[in-house]
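Figure 2 data, in text form.
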Amino acid sequence: MHTKFSEKPEVYALPLGTLDTDPGVRADRHVFVGSKAPWFDISDDLPQFTENG
């Protein structure tokens, strides 16, 4: 199961929970923080974007 983006056909998205091993990538930003759960605190220094940044 994956998602393709018509604006960026070279990009695929898939749920990371489907991977068996470490994919070797790390988050570099937080997106859609304007709609995150109010009880969830972001505790790192990565950039935050209200929408997709």
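Caption note: The chain is about 0% helix and 15% strand.
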